[in-house]
Amino acid sequence: MPTDTPGYTIVRETPVLGLGGSHCEVRYENVRLPAQNLLGPRGQGFVIAQKRLGPGRIFHCMRWLGQAQRAFDLMCRRLHERRAFGEPPAAEQLMRQHVFGSYAEIQSARLLTPHAAEAIDAGSQARVEIGTIKVVGARMLHNVIDRAIQVYGAAGLTPDTPLERMYRHARAGRIYDGPDEVHIDSVGRRIPGVYAAGGTWG
Ligand SMILES: Cc1cc2nc3c(=O)[nH]c(=O)nc-3n(C[C@H](O)[C@H](O)[C@H](O)COP(=O)(O)OP(=O)(O)OC[C@H]3O[C@@H](n4cnc5c(N)ncnc54)[C@H](O)[C@@H]3O)c2cc1C
């Protein structure tokens, strides 16, 4: 739809956790378009959007893995470089649990992401696989960056490192393209449905 079409209004940009950007509130009022502007059959817009959203969620997960690895690298270097009270934080057991938790979650997401992509390549809609990795990937990124900030202390909350900006992006990932709860609900419903039909899953 050309954006100068009568009835289309950009109401405002909506900053997200202080990040400006391209997310706008838009209003459609009696917008009329020629039939050739339809991207598919009338009334099928949501179906078309869903087809795009599935692979799009896998792309999110791929980017999230890169972001998480960056945060993990920063965290592990900081654990050795920082000297607050003599010993580096790496000597503290409670700091080591941040390494373990982050490594375990990154590796889990790293294996689940291609698993979902392979299911799509095999011709499946892969709703269980995509719903699962969307939740696991978004939580993983959020948790890994959160731990990296914790390891950095106050410096992690400042723009001295990229972590605080990464964290703000990561928090939104648990909401956009379907919040965690909606995917959990879908996966938790679909798998027992296979059993109800006499099958198994795994
Ligand atoms: C940065 C960003 C970019 C976005 N980009 C786009 C975009 O490009 N295109 C687009 O269409 N939208 C976009 N969105 C909107 C996003 O998809 C919605 O915000 C999201 O789907 C949640 O909808 P909602 O905000 O209306 O929350 P609500 O639907 O009101 O949900 C509020 C809470 O209720 C929970 N909830 C809802 N349903 C259930 C359920 N069945 N069971 C349990 N809990 C439930 C949710 O999990 C959530 O915690 C974007 C949002 C953000 C933050």
In short:
This protein has 202 residues and is mostly helical.
Description:
The protein has 202 residues and is mainly alpha-helical. It has a single domain (48-194), classed as Butyryl-CoA Dehydrogenase, subunit A, domain 3, CATH 1.20.140. 59% of the residues lie in helices and 5% in strands. It has helices spanning 45-81, 93-121, 127-152, 163-173, 180-196, and strands at residues 8-13, 24-28. A two-stranded antiparallel sheet has the order 1-2. Helix 1 (45-81) packs parallel to helix 3 (127-152) and helix 3 packs antiparallel against helix 4 (163-173). The longest helix has 37 residues, at 45-81. It is flat, with a radius of gyration of 21 Å. The termini are far apart. The model has no long low-confidence stretch (mean pLDDT 94). Flavin-adenine dinucleotide binds next to helix 5. Residues 16, 23, 172, 175-179, 181-182, 185 line the site of flavin-adenine dinucleotide.
